[in-house]
Amino acid sequence: MEKFRIFGGYRLSGTVTVSGAKNAALPCLAATLLTREPVRLSGLPRVRDILTMEKVLRTLGEHCQHDNGTTTVVMGQATATHAPYELVRTMRASVLVLGPLLASRWQARVALPGGCAIGARPIDFHLAALARLGADIRVEHGDVVAEAPRGLFGAEITFPRVTVTGT
C-alpha cells in the first residue's frame, strides 16, 4: 500500500474521495453491450473519455442514467452497430466496443479512433485478436468494419507488447 509522508509543523486530517480509474471504467462501459440487464457502475470519473463513451453507447441504443455517484446503463431495443467518427475521434478507447458488438450483434462499424492510422497507436493488436476469434475485419473509408456471421470462438492470444486497452 502506498502512503504519503508529510513533514512539517501541521498535522493533516480529513478524508479524500477518489473516483474510479478511467482505464478501468471504459472497458466496463463497453461490456454493458453484452447484456440486456441493467448494469450499475459506481465511482466512474466524470472525464471526457467517459462522457464520450456514454454518448457512443447511446448511439448504439443504450441509456445511461446517473444517480448519486452511480451510473446505470440499460440496453434499449436498438440494434445499431455504428460508432461514428464524430463521437470517437478524440477517444482511442472506442475500439473497446468492437468485441462486445461482434459478440452480441455479430457486426460492428467503428471509426478509427482519434483518426489514427492502424499501427500509429496500436489498435492493430485488437484487430488481429478479433480476427483470431473468427471476425472478418477490414477498413473502409476510415471505419473499422467487423463481421462475425458465424459468431466468435475462443483462441489463445498474446500481444507482442503491453497494451492498456488490450487486456
From TrEMBL:
Catalytic activity: phosphoenolpyruvate + UDP-N-acetyl-alpha-D-glucosamine = UDP-N-acetyl-3-O-(1-carboxyvinyl)-alpha-D-glucosamine + phosphate
Annotated pathway: Cell wall biogenesis; peptidoglycan biosynthesis
InterPro entries xrefs: Enolpyruvate_Tfrase_dom, Enolpyruvate_Tfrase_sf, MurA_subfamily, RNA3'P_cycl/enolpyr_Trfase_a/b
Keyword Nucleus appears in the UniProt entry: no
Taxonomic superkingdom: Bacteria
UniProt-annotated location(s): Cytoplasm
Main location: cytoplasm
GO biological process: cell division; cell wall organization; peptidoglycan biosynthetic process; regulation of cell shape
EC assignment: 2.5.1.7
Protein family (similarity comment): Belongs to the EPSP synthase family. MurA subfamily.
PANTHER family listed in its UniProt record: UDP-N-ACETYLGLUCOSAMINE 1-CARBOXYVINYLTRANSFERASE
Protein name: UDP-N-acetylglucosamine 1-carboxyvinyltransferase
Organism: Thermoanaerobaculum aquaticum
